[in-house]
Design brief:
By secondary structure, this protein is mainly α. The chain has one helix and no strands. This is Transcriptional regulator.
Length: 75
């Protein structure tokens, strides 16, 4: 009976160890994916901000050019 009990215990420990290892691996993968996702979102936000800033500068430059051409045209 003790030999059967030891085999059962060893099998249970082996299965538990395998399950625990898989769980830890899955948690690591999920953590890495979350970090990559956050980095991508931060980069996208930064690029969006730069694009909007450039568009605002371009619009201001176009408005200034239009105002300048109106002044020159009146002379």
């Amino acid at each position: 009976m003790t030999a059967t009990s030891k085999k059962s215990r060893d099998l249970a420990e082996s299965i538990f160890s395998k399950t625990q290892t898989q769980s830890m691996s899955l948690n690591r993968i999920i953590s890495e994916q979350d970090a990559a996702s956050q980095a991508r979102e931060a980069k996208t936000a930064r690029l969006r901000e730069l694009r909007l800033e450039k568009e605002a500068d371009d619009m201001a430059a176009a408005a200034a050019l239009a105002a300048l051409s109106k002044r020159v045209g009146k002379r």
